[in-house]
Design a protein that fits this description.
Elements: E1 13-19, H1 24-36, E2 41-45, E3 65-68, H2 71-76, E4 83-87, E5 94-95, E6 104-110, H3 118-123, E7 126-129, H4 138-151
Parallel strand pairs: 1-2, 1-6, 2-3, 4-6, 4-7, 5-7
Length: about 150
């Protein structure tokens, strides 16, 4: 009996989440963008989500939301062979314009007030930064990262 090779429309997967989100409305907006731009799931680390009106496409019915207590919990539950990519204005970060997105990755964003703490930065496999000298709204930053991934495919 011959084995058939399974084919898929695209290799890999990606997800995006927020560390210690402060404004719940941002996660609803990010969830909507994640669904529209093809993410496999979204997540929170440290703070839970409450349903928001900004999710006007009901993305919660289409892609899952996972919650992780802390960075250890996130790292423990990363899918096999998946890169954790921090999005942060940091001297060690690669400019998004030059960045080649991994086939399998999870993007981690910090909240707008404090960004990603050093404990989270240290656990990321890679860091990327968006253009500009100031922090963007977290849902806007996440949407730009997801669009950049899609545009570079």
């Amino acid at each position: 009996m011959a084995r058939l090779k399974q084919t898929y429309p695209a290799d890999g997967f990606f997800a995006i989440g927020i560390f210690n989100n402060k404004e719940q409305v941002n996660l609803g907006t990010l969830w909507r963008s994640a669904y529209i731009l093809g993410a496999s799931f979204i997540f929170t680390v440290g703070s839970k989500y409450k349903k928001q009106g900004t999710d006007v496409v009901n993305a919660w019915q289409k892609i899952p939301l996972f919650h992780y207590r802390d960075m250890d919990d996130l790292i423990t539950h990363l899918p096999y062979d998946t890169r954790l990519v921090g999005v942060e204005l940091d001297d060690k970060a690669i400019d998004m314009i030059d960045y080649q997105h991994p086939f399998r990755c999870v993007y981690l964003l910090g909240n707008e007030q404090s960004g990603l703490p050093s404990e989270a930065l240290a656990r990321c496999h890679e860091l990327v930064k968006l253009p500009g000298n100031y922090s963007l709204n977290v849902s806007v930053a996440g949407s730009i990262v997801l669009y950049d991934r899609l545009a570079k495919q």
